[in-house]
Amino acid sequence: MKQLIQLLILKSEGIPLFTYSPDVALKEEDDDPMLVSGFMSAINQFITSTKRDQLNELGLSRGLIIIEEDKELNVLFTLYISDEIDVSWGKRVLQAFRERFIDQFRQPLEFFSGNISQFRTFITETESILESFGYPMLQHVSNNPSDELLSFYIIDRNSLKSIHSKSQYSEEEEYLILQLYEVIAEAAITTNQELDVNNVQFLLVMKDLRSIQIGFLSESVIILETKGGLDLDIESSSHPRVLTEDQFVEYIHSLFPDASAALYSRRGHRMYNLISDISFTDHEQRSLLFFLTTISRSKEVLEHMEPLGLIVESPSQETYSLVNWGQIICVSKVLENRSSVHNKLIKCVLKPPK
Questions:
Q1: 4-135 CATH choice from 3.30.1340.30, 3.40.50.1820, 3.30.450.50, 2.60.120.40
Q2: How far apart, in whole angstroms, are the C-alpha atoms of residue 11 and residue 96?
């Protein structure tokens, strides 16, 4: 069953302007009459029997129709979603559809001549909006359930609140985890902006070898937590409570001959540059320290989750890591091939020097 059943934009009197279903773009030459007419019938029936000022949702057997109206342009925007999708996700997506559609077609809507073919080009915008709110991943997770999946969240980038969730946790556990996710999402977004790097991917490694992957889209943050998701044949060892600077420098150099690295003291809240082959800029230091101090606000949540390390990968050759080793945090920046760096940093996270 499709999670997003149909997007329909129509004039309030019932003239359809644009219709879209995932995998099926309904065009003039290949309309599905039953799908469109059935959908239209439900909408029109509800419009005629309800005060329009109160028109916002319509529950059906297969899901929910979310409705927005632009009274100035006399246009209805409707999104039909299954009950597997959170309503808050549907509302944010429909709002984006409405804003983008009006921005692109305001003049044709103000002086509507009956020509609906001009609205077909909105299919590109439609798919772009769905992608920006994580729909491909949402559909994949819903259609391919797995015991390995512990939780899946879509967090709105504007409100920093969850707009869709799927979790195996209890209500109490999920509350703590969501707190962590929202704080990390906020800190990661700001760090991403400060570092001025696009399409950054975060990988958070937990003590029991769970992995939390954090990806950024233009309108949302995707968080996917899996057990055994790293798929690496590396055994975890307990992290030492004390690590000398000499040990740290030697270990980082053994992994990355050309790298920059620093220590962040939890007690002193200071960063110490140790390797300057590729020095951190002042801007990078401020950005990384912001990330560390922001997530430290959720101390109880972090202790509950017991994170070992965070890897930040970008499309460029810059990769950052933040590794939790007791009372200090290792911060490193590496310029190498991404796949090579990823595996080495996982080793750094899971097997610190003895």
A1: 3.30.450.50
A2: 18
